[in-house]
Amino acid sequence: MTLKAILFDLNGVIINDEDVHCQLSIDLLLDENIIATQKEYNRFCLGRGDRGLADLLSNRGRLVSEQYLQELILRKCKAYQEYIKNLGSLPTYCDLLKVLIEIKIKGFKIGLVSGTTQGEAKMVLSRLQIIDYFDVIVGEDEVNQAKPDPQSYLLAASKLQQINPWECLAIEDTPLGIAAAKRAGMQVAGIANTYPFHFMQRCSNWAVDYLTELDWEWISENFTKDALDFNC
Question: Which CATH number fits domain 5-16+92-229: 3.40.1010.10, 3.40.50.300, 3.40.50.1000, 1.20.1420.30?
């Protein structure tokens, strides 16, 4: 089995903004007369993206239609874009550009599988001046199920064309993201940006503290079908 594509998560892997999404979600829910906590956000939204708001609201006894959810997501998307627009520089991770260049040199395709809208994702990548490195971008507005459902990862693989899910390596920072990629038949590198290293090690095929620690030659040489049997 051959490694052909690297699929990145966005929040917590490319941009260090999980706390921003948490606060914007809490503010949004306050407008809906719900006082949410960071603990609730982490339980229902962290790793799932904006669609996790539906579960948080349902847990509070609210009926959440798809139309209502999309209205909430749109409002949060606008608030996020406004926040990003007003930042002088975006909080990203060290040597990200170096990693992307190395991946391209190795001949791998690069994709993004985000729990935010495609518009948000493109805005972030454009601000970081790295959007041209990505062959495909999948946002939560293109699917109807959030991670850990594999839908977004399967869509990314299909967009790459002539690349199967099992020929992709996902880079994730949360257990739900890891589960989504694995359910799509992909192997996963866990980055300890959001959860401790030992947690990523337990859930992932490969685990590192930093993106720059990923050894692409080693991963390629050990990218075998047996690794797909690895479970959390």
Answer: 3.40.50.1000
pLDDT tens digits for range 37-78:
999 999 999 998 899 999 999 999 999 999 999 999 999 999
Q: Return the number of other C-beta atoms located less than 10 Å from residue 91's C-beta.
A: 10
What interhelical angle do 52-59 and 66-85 show, nearest 10?
120
Predicted local distance difference test score (pLDDT) of residue 198: 94
pTM over 0.85: yes
Euclidean distance between CA atoms 37 and 168, whole angstroms: 36
Question: What pLDDT is attached to residue 231?
Answer: 54
From residue 141, give the alpha-carbon distance in Å to each of 3, 16, 110, 117, 155.
28, 21, 20, 5, 12
Which class for 225: exposed (0-12), middle (13-18), buried (19 or more C-beta within 10 A)? Answer: exposed
CA distance 180 to 101: 26
